[in-house]
Amino acid sequence: MLIVMKFGGTSVGSVAALEKVVGIVTRSVQRGDRVVVVVSAMSGVTDMLLKGARQAAQGDTETAHRMHEEMLRRHREVIDVFLTDPAVHDEVLNAIETLLDEFDSLCHSIKVLGELTPRALDVIAGMGERMSVRQVAAILESRGVATRALDATQLIVTDSNFGSASPLMSQTTRRTQEVLVPLLNAGIVPVITGFIGATEDGIVTTLGRGGSDYSATILGSAITADEVWIWTDVNGVMTADPRVVPDARTIPYLSYIEVGEMAYFGAKVLHPQAIRPARRAGIPVRILNTFEPEHPGTLITREPNGGDKRVKAVTAIKGMSLIVIEGSGMLGVPGVAARAFGAVARTGTNVLMISQSSSEQSICFVVPTSDSARVLAALREEMARELERQDIENIMAQDDIVILTVVGAGMRGTPGIASKAFGALGKRDINVIAIAQGSSEYNISIVVDQRNADNAVRALHAEFGLGANNTSTTT
Ligand code: ADP
Ligand code: ASP
Ligand code: MG
């Protein structure tokens, strides 16, 4: 089999984890698989890089200096244990130190300029993967696996939407095949940075936080892999975030659509875009646990078998704002909604959910809080005349809200799911601010106050019988 295996931050974040990675990759190679490895930065490293850069923009390079020391310590700890050949040890350590020195001088420039551009931020954010890849390749090599460390900047071609770039698939496919096919044919395991790509002009971009998952499916689709395996720190995709719901269970099978909805609505286990290349190419994706490699995890395919539960999972996405446009004069004014969404679209904001009250006296929709000020300004400008005439009385934002989403393909055509969800929240005095049902009927989304988020997730999880303590299989 040709398998792309992606190892997340925790999976490459410690000596113990890397020992597991070595076991997983060597077993697969010994079985005769052809393997491509995609690695994240060591856990916490991307955050440290971003923190150093942001502080530098405020005139403080002391933080970057501290982060440098901490990142060096983390890498050194691993290198010292695994790389016992002094020449290899020093070569990898030097490569990492060179990158960290580059980080220092970039932070220095940022301080001098007093400005941190999205483009500079992407160069810095991607350094964690560039350090990690050299380390992981050398470790595997030291355990007898022939490897080649590669920066995805030479494989994944993206647009120049810094911070959340999208791949240009035809160019990416051509370059990836050119580089990877000869290596694979020679029995070499390519070890590739996750998270980053480059524009056609070679400028570094990132695919958004958590983007190494996306890298894996992009590369998997480029080489038409048989499967993509996402190795992480939990037993697959679960019925809810296990940090919030202790009795969350593994979902053995999911469809591309279901997992896509879950990721879009906050299940951090997979990057929101990551499923798309796999879905287009029809490549099965497995979510597996590095720390429990024998666990079957979750298998994601087009038509999952055995998945007869109506509701499969509950997710929550925090840090959202509800934008409300209201006014009795909106009734019958044609095109208000179209103009409103046109104005929002021009700000480049992602609208996660829309709901209109049946009276047509209000339109509300949800955007990330980080975009809400821009959205309000754009709407007030677009609707200036209506506001003046008081056809629209108010355009406002309610911050600190969360979207809860109940997901499952089997919900389609099953009545009563929404009322059951409201009942569960009502019993706990959790006020529902807005609701929407996806047109696909694969999800129902409910907006509540962020204060209630965790309780609400637990309430819905219990109500639909998703927990390990519950044997219900019908709803
Ligand atoms: P990695 O570094 O391997 O990419 P992430 O931290 O990005 O790992 O994603 C894995 C984490 O996602 C888990 O540790 C878990 O806390 C969180 N998570 C949130 N929702 C879910 C869910 N529905 N199923 C599994 N994990 C989830
Ligand atoms: N290291 C990047 C991040 O922390 C990408 C990833 O881990 O997937 O967002
Ligand atoms: Mg992740």
Overview of the molecule:
The protein is built from 15 helices and 16 strands. Strands 3-4-2-1-7-9-10-8 form an 8-stranded mixed sheet, sandwiched between helices. A 6-stranded antiparallel sheet has the order 12-13-11-14-16-15. The chain has 2 domains: 2-233, Carbamate kinase (3-Layer(aba) Sandwich); 313-463, 2-Layer Sandwich (VC0802-like). It has 475 residues and is α/β, with parallel strands linked by helices. Helix 2 (45-57) packs parallel to helix 4 and helix 11 (336-346) packs across helix 12 (369-382). Bound molecules: adenosine-5'-diphosphate, aspartic acid (ASP) and magnesium ion (MG). The site of magnesium ion has 3 residues, from loops. Aspartic acid binds at residues 8-9, 40-41, 46, 128, 194-195, 209-212.
Topology:
Elements: E1 2-7, H1 15-30, E2 34-39, H2 45-57, H3 62-82, H4 86-113, H5 118-125, H6 127-142, E3 147-150, H7 169-185, E4 189-193, E5 196-198, E6 204-206, H8 212-222, E7 227-232, E8 253-255, H9 256-264, H10 275-281, E9 285-289, E10 298-301, E11 313-326, H11 336-346, E12 353-356, E13 362-368, H12 369-382, H13 384-388, E14 394-407, H14 417-427, E15 434-437, E16 443-449, H15 453-463
Parallel strand pairs: 1-2, 1-7, 2-4, 3-4, 7-9, 8-10
Antiparallel strand pairs: 5-6, 9-10, 11-13, 11-14, 12-13, 14-16, 15-16
Helix pairs in contact: 2-3, 2-4, 3-4, 3-6, 4-6, 7-8, 8-10, 9-10, 11-12, 14-15
